[in-house]
Write a structure and sequence with these properties.
Blueprint (H helix, E strand, L loop, with lengths): L1 E2 L2 E2 L6 H4 L8 H11 L12 H14 L5 H17 L3 H8 L13 H5 L2 H8 L9 H15 L1
Antiparallel strand pairs: 1-2
Helix pairs in contact: 4-5, 7-8
Length: 148
Amino acid sequence: MYILDVTLKENKIILLELCTIYGINYYTSQTICKKLGLSKNAKTNQLSKNQIFQLNIILTNEYFSKISNELKKIEYLRFQKLVSIKSYRGLRKIKGLPIRGQRTHTNAKTARKHTFYKELVRSLGKLVGLMPQRLLVRFQLLTFIKKW
């Protein structure tokens, strides 16, 4: 079954499979199942075409701005706003450091793991013309931070 750019597995409990959609948690999937009148043990292959259609209507009308690609887009724009106004949080996020005041002297190894692209940009610094667009934007942001 294919709903909102996500493929739900066949023969799995619908309550748990709705949680695989980005932005839907267990509580939200429970409320959706109650609105559809489904039991907690209903499986995805047991849904009729009418129930799948109603599920699509509920997700697009009530939850569309809070789930899937729309939610990812909102989070990305929120991050870009922090970067564009040069806030502390935005700069820390670009550098790959903890944002909410955590200790960095001994911890924050996880946050540093996610900054693999910084090393890539440093090694490809002279090859700016050959970089893909995404790396080029990150390279420009990093050089901006160093100057700032």
